Amino acid sequence: MNDRYDVVIAGAGPAGAQCARDLAARGYDVVVLETESEDEFPRQSNKSTAGTFPSMMASFGIPDDVVMQYTDSVVLESPTDYYVREQPGAVLEFADFKRFLVADGTEDGAEYRFDSRVTAPITEGGEIVGVRYNGDEEVYGEIVIDATGPAAPLAKKLGVVDLKRENHAIGIEYEFEGIDIDRPGFADLRDAMMLRLDHEIAPGGYSWIFHTGEDTAKVGLCYIQNDIHTRYARESFTIDDYLEHWLETDPRLRDARRLEGKQHRGSAHIQLPGRMHTDRFMAIGDTVPTVDPLWGEGINKCMQSGRMAAAAADSCLKHGDLEPTAENLEVYDTLWHREVAPNVKKRLWMTKLLYLAENDRYDRLMQDLNRADDDTLAKANRGDFLSIAKILELGDLPLLSRLARWELGLGGLD
């Protein structure tokens, strides 16, 4: 088995597998080390709601046969109201999607080693030159990429990422049948992806119902385990308790039956990225982290980060005399901030503002959204402060004050 490659990638998630696809298509020798066994992949890492949009499908050549359901709209719900926006989308069968990425990259020449748990970087002269896995096995590369997500065994040991516990988001999802998709008094969720803002169900976060055909859907919730969650949380309630509470109280879910083997748990960090690279090394996907903080969109962001890392690696490797030093890999950071998450600071601010609001403000937000024109909403979603201001009310001043005190580290969420 070869032990030297142009690029070594740890992790076969969307970021790592897409990076491998792009590098293999350019003719580079690339190996991907994946913890799970090939026979069961991705049983343990099948953790995404897999909601995405046509732009991602087209940009990365994703085939229709990994789609569970194409959707026509996105629905936002509050405890008593809702807003519907026509927006085509797709709910993927995430396991099939990941297997496609692996197969497609393999066809172009990428090598995959399953049952390969990465444990540590191999360094020489202070630079990473390879990866140690499965105890004492080693593989070497001109460039090494960590795409393992929050575990980040390479990025943490190299001091590239600093994932904060207070920014840790957790989520749980089940797939159900027997859901009342078009319940009177609620939005029609046929061919829709619905996100609900309701602290009774997801304190300091949101919940969702993604229609997957007939009377089936993905149902779940997530929240960040920080001060906002604590402000609204019930004492001793776990994330499983909140999901059970939703199932018991929402008439759409009262007759829902869980599909066997269709439970997913996941986690990510919602924070500003710090360093993303050093000499001969880049961190991509949820290792950075990359997930969109506002609505949790991860697939497209991770795929983009993998593509930007592949472009940065190519910029060095195609020139035989250009060493992949930190300075020469700086293009990855530049591309990430320009292409992957150009408004990340604004979106983090918007996230805190949104999840600090009370439930009754969510009800009024639905009314504000229904009154606003499409251009204002599009600009607000991109972080335009003037457009956001059009949706705010005078009564939001105390909310803005709480957010300002929190941002300054002065507390004051109560």
Automatic annotation (TrEMBL):
GO terms for molecular function: FAD binding. InterPro entries: Dggglyphlred_Halo, FAD-bd, FAD/NAD-bd_sf, Geranylgeranyl_reductase. Residues 5-305 form the FAD-binding domain. Pfam families: FAD_binding_3. PANTHER family: DIGERANYLGERANYLGLYCEROPHOSPHOLIPID REDUCTASE, GERANYLGERANYL DIPHOSPHATE REDUCTASE. NCBIfam families: Dggglyphlred_Halo (NF041385). This is NAD(P)/FAD-dependent oxidoreductase. It comes from Natrarchaeobius chitinivorans.
